[in-house]
Amino acid sequence: MTDRTADPFPMSELEARQREHVLYTWSAQKHARGLEIVGGRGASFQLADGRQVLDFESQTYNVNVGHGEARVGEAIARQAQQLAAASPKAVFEAKARLGEELARVTPGDLDRVFFTLGGSEAVENAVKIAKLLTGRQKVVARYRSYHGATMGALTLTSDPRRRPFEPGVPGLVRVMPPYRHRCLFCQGPPLGQCGDAPCNDACIDHIEEVVALEGPETIAAIVMESIGGANGVIVPPPDWWPRLRALCDRHGIMLVADEVLTGFGRTGKWFGIDHYGVVPDLMCLAKGLTSGYAPLGAVMIRHELAKRFDEQPLVAGLTAYAHPISCAAAVACLEIYEQDGLIDRAARVGAHLGARLERLRRHPWVSDVRGKGLLWAVELSDPATGQPLVPQNAPAPAGSPLKGLDETLLARGLYLPIKWNMAIFAPPLPVTEAECDRAVDLFEAALLEVLK
User: Fold this and answer.
1) 3-state SS assignment for residue 140
2) Cα 415 from Cα 43, distance rounded (Å)
3) Under 8 Å CB-to-CB from 138, ≥6 apart: which residues?
4) Which end of the chain is more exposed for a tag (fewer CB within 10 A), N or C?
5) Buried b / exposed e along 43-54 (16+ C-beta atoms within 10 A)
6) For 279-332, how does the pLDDT look when each residue is reduced to its tens digit (9 = 90+)?
7) Which residues partner with 388 through β-bridges?
8) Looking only at Cα atoms, what is the longest distance across the chain?
C-alpha cells in the first residue's frame, strides 16, 4: 500500500478500506492516490479535513453546473420516487422532455437522439450509426485527440492509453490536427511556430488528400472533437470545420462532432461547433449533459438521416438506455443553464480567464496560451530549444520540473490537470472572475517554485 505519511493529503481510514476492494482507473494501483471529497459548492469542493479546493478540472471536465447544485439533486429525488427504473422501451415524461430540449438547443436539424451511458458509448454508437447509414467501414480521426475508453472509442483516441489494446477496431485512418502552435504544414520560419501569420489551410488540405488516397467511397465517417479537449485544447482555424463539412458533403461521408467535453457551455456557446456555423451529421454528447450528477450520453442525428431507420433496423441498444434518473438530471441541468445564464457567463468569465492566462506569456517557459470560453491550455516549453518540457504521449522523465506539479498545485488548494507539458483550465461554469484570478495566481506561484 502507498506510504502517504508525509503527504499533505494523507491516506484516510476510508481510503484504506476502499483500496482493499476498489480499483483506481488509468493507474498502477500502488501509486494511485485518492481524495476524500465530502461536498462542494460552485467552483470548489471540500475535503474531509475541511479544506476547500478550487476545482479547475470540473472533476473530469463534467461538473458544468457546479458542485452542490440542489436543483439537480431534487430532480433526481423526485424521479426516483416516481419511476426509478425502466426498460429501453418505456415512455415517460423526463425522457420525452429531454428529447425535446436537446432538439431545441443543438444546431440545425439535429432533432433525433439515441441515448447512451456516457461519452465513450456515444462515440461508439455514433460510429456504428455512421456505418449503418453508409454501408462503409473506414473512419477518419486525428492525432492529439481523446474520444473515450471503450474499444471503438479508444481506437479513435490518440494518446498512450490506446497502445495496450492495439490494433483495436480495424478501419481507422489518422490525420494531423490543426495544432497551430506546432503546425507541420505552415511554411514560415521557424517551422511549427505560426505566430500571428494567417493560417494557410494546409492542415485541411492534408485531410482532403488523405481521404482521396484512402478512397472516399470507403469512408463511413470523419470523427473529430469540435475543439480539442483533454489532449491539448486544439482550437481549429475559422474555416477548418466549414471545409470539413464541404468535404463530407462531396463524398457522402458522415461528419461526426465529438462534443462530449466541449458541449453545454464549456467553450462559451452551447456547443463548440457553434463557433464555426456548421451542422454535423451526428453529434456526441455527455459530461455537461448531466454535469456528472448521473451517467448519461447521447448521439444527436440529423432529421433526414434518422428517417432512414423508420424501415431499416437501428442495430444498437443498451440495458440502461435513457435511464429515468439520468434523464431527470439532464432536464434539470438544461433548465439551470438557461435560468442562470451559464452559457453567456462562460463566455464572459472565460474571456477574463483567458486574458489573465495570456499575461503568463511574460515567463520564458510559457510558449502558448489558447482556448475558448472556460476551456484553456497553457503550454510549457524549454526557452532555449522551444521543445515541450514533457513530450506528448510520454511520461515526465525523472527530474522533470513538471513531475508532480499537479500535486504541488493541489497542496496549494487548486485542482488542475497537467497533461504532458500542458496545464488545462476548465472550471465549473458558475466560477467567478475572482476565483479565476486566484487560480492563475496559484498556478503561477507553483510554476515559479518548480521551475526555479
Assistant:
1) strand
2) 10
3) 171, 172, 173, 214, 218, 219, 220
4) C
5) bbbbbeeeeebb
6) 999 999 999 999 999 999 999 999 999 999 999 999 999 999 999 999 999 999
7) 381
8) 66
- Helix, strand, coil share of the chain (percent; to 5): 40, 15, 45
- The whole-angstrom separation of Cα 352 and Cα 268 is 12
Q: Calculate the alpha carbon distances from 408 to 205, 295, 379 in Å.
A: 42, 31, 18
Residues 6+ apart with CB under 8 A from 198: none
The predicted model scores a pTM of 0.94
* pLDDT tens digits, one per residue of 385-408: 888 988 887 888 777 888 889 889
Question: Residue 180: which residues within 8 A CB-CB, separation 6 or more?
Answer: 186, 194, 199, 235, 237, 370
Q: State how far the alpha carbon of 207 is from the alpha carbons of 218, 221, 230, 297, 418, in Å.
A: 15, 13, 22, 28, 29
The gap from C-alpha 183 to its chain's centroid, in whole angstroms, comes to: 22
Residue 201 Cα to chain centre, angstroms: 25
Q: Phi/psi of residue 206, each to 5°?
A: -60, -45
The three cell numbers locating residue 166 = 492495439
